[in-house]
Fold this protein.
Amino acid sequence: MTLTVDVADHIATITLNRPDRLNAFNVQMMRDFITALDRTDADDDVRAVIVTGAGRAFCAGADLERGGETFDHGADSERVRRDGGGMLTLRIFDSAKPIIAAINGPAAGIGITMTLPMDIRLASDDSKIGFVFAKRGIVTEAASSWFLPRLVGMPTALEWCYSGRVMPAAEAAAAGLVRTIPHDELMSAARELASEFAENAPVSVALTRQLLWRGLTLSHPMEAHRADSRAISELGRSDDAREGVESFLEKRQPVWRGRPSTDLPDVFPDYEAPPFM
């Protein structure tokens, strides 16, 4: 396995685990990561996910072990080979659980673009970040041409991608991409935030994640209104809604019974991931 998954206190920690290669991304890591997300989505004990890296790096980017042939997948006149980074980020986009990136060291190329569909990015204050694709003779991948401008704005996204420079975390924080944390406090800060998420109704959190992320794809606020209305209608009559109100009035901790794996209503009946062409 190229990563490990540990679950404790309703939090799954996914650790990229190729420290001898600075956790460089390869096809096996992509497959293992998608499998890990399938596992966290299916496990109702998991209410939040943290992603970090083993050793001194978060992820140094694509594994360049093949040298100049790294990005050459060969000619294929019948179809285009799917970008593995994009397969991963689309799976992250569809996650039922909130995901926090704890960027503990260098994050370049896919090492940073994989975090764009994650919900929160915490970065060690000594980490470095780079959208280095133009320096490698390729282009942005992992659907980052869609995610990055939505997170930092088009001018900043273009500057970072055109220059390909490796920047300190402070510059990324100034643009709103990450929140910097002292290195020794990074994981405790990530766990504290994940614990806050885990305290709330799991179905509510999962559905809120869908409403906000999928809402970015809608063409008019009326579509969001329809989805919101369906969500309120479905959850408003649930046991968790009743428990949320009663526990507040009784000044006690709520006991949630809803399970995202089975109780998540479909509030986007027309949503369908577009086919790959």
